[in-house]
Amino acid sequence: MKILGYAAYSATAPLAPFQFERREPRADDVVIDILYCGVCHTDLHFVRNHSGFTTYPVVPGHEIIGRVVSVGSQVTHIKIGNIVGVGCMVDSCGHCHSCSHGQEQACIEGPTFTYGFVDRRDGMTTYGGYSERIVVSEKFVLSIPDSLDPAGAAPLLCAGITTWSPLHQWKVGQSSKVGVIGLGGLGHMAIKLAKALGAEVTLFTRSIGKEADAFQLGADHVVISNNAAQMNQVANTYDLIIDTVPYAHDVNPYMDTLGFEGVLVLVGYFGPLEPAVTAGPMLRGRKVLTGSFIGGIAETQEMLDFCGQHEIVSDIELISIQGIDEAYDRMLAGDVRYRFVIDIASLRQQE
Ligand code: NAP
Ligand code: ZN
Ligand code: ZN
User: What is the DSSP string of 302-340?
Assistant: First the structure.
């Protein structure tokens, strides 16, 4: 079927309309008319080819909310008319150790990502949520609780699960002291989720002026990360820090703020750590430096259900697709409060 989307044709050109083919639905497929799509910093990395492996044209978008318009004969749980979500993955091998333990994001063969990859079954390029319709195997379609505003729920599909997964893995609860580095899409979800789990939450930000918002989102404390005196005051404090910063940065000052056996989880940056990380604090304080990557499908549904119970959605700025380049520029400048979400109805106003 022919689909209208919005694509980047190169690392420098503005995004523009793009017609492409989606597969004919298979027996296990769900066909979804997209209503909203969140704008993740990963979209920006892809569009501007920060990692060097983007193939163009790329239709970004992996925080997808839509309405089901048809289902294949083998689909059991999802019904026509349901409001559903699709996140960063649309398939995986299904049989490796990771897949059989609900960790599809760590599929040994590599998951099929929602955009910019090759579908493992038919070899077609995957195109994401900046488009009017998507076809996805039921296994990778999430149910969205009725209590959640659909536009605000879109960012849960990536920013939500990416921050939920380490909070869950490291058993954050009532007595936990949690730090969050960077107040953007991931950071603001980390604050909301950690708070809802009962933790005492500190935001580390380089941006003077975000303090009031941080408190509103649920943070108990704010530390300006380039203020050495403020950093010293919180030395040896945290059980868990979630670091959402998208670019190379010095993690040593944050390691010093971890308590004994504290854990710093990188979720934002995939490249070499510069400057190098000093081992001493890790040895003396048994501190852990680790990372986390989105989360499994079952875990994503658990997070969505938790958000449904606690009425947690993202704080969004709804934009039209025509405003996407400006949204990227603002995101790069740290000026996003706190997730852009595209109203996909604007795509059809294009022509
Ligand atoms: P975002 O909305 O742009 O937020 C990032 C925040 O980090 C900014 O608001 C800013 O907060 C801080 N920041 C930005 N540039 C910085 C710099 N050069 N130095 C220090 N702080 C900086 O981005 P996002 O959508 O949350 O994504 C964050 C990163 O996570 C991206 O790299 C994205 O690709 C990655 N990601 C990873 C996963 C995963 O599975 N691990 C999933 C989704 C996204 P302050 O102004 O408060 O300092
Ligand atoms: Zn993302
Ligand atoms: Zn697998």
Answer: HHHHHHHHHT----EEEEEGGGHHHHHHHHHTT--SSEE
**206 close to ligand 1 (CB < 6 Angstrom):** yes
Distance (Å, whole) CA 287 – CA 260: 6
- Phi and psi torsions of 260, nearest 5°: -55, 130
pLDDT tens for residues 188-232? Answer: 999 999 999 999 999 999 999 999 999 999 999 999 999 999 999
Contact in structure between 296 and 104 (CB atoms under 8 Å): yes
CATH of domain 160-291: 3.40.50.720
Q: Is 168 in the pocket of ligand 1 (CB under 6 A)?
A: no
pLDDT in tens, 277-302: 999 999 999 999 999 999 999 999 99
Q: What are phi and psi of 80, to 5 degrees?
A: -60, 135
Residue 334 Cβ contacting ligand 1 at under 6 Å: yes
pLDDT of residue 349: 86
d(C-alpha 143, C-alpha 136), whole Å: 13
Q: Which of 145, 144, 140, 197 is nearest to 167 (CA)?
A: 197
Report pTM: 0.98
Fold of 2-157+313-348: Quinone Oxidoreductase; Chain A, domain 1 (3.90.180)
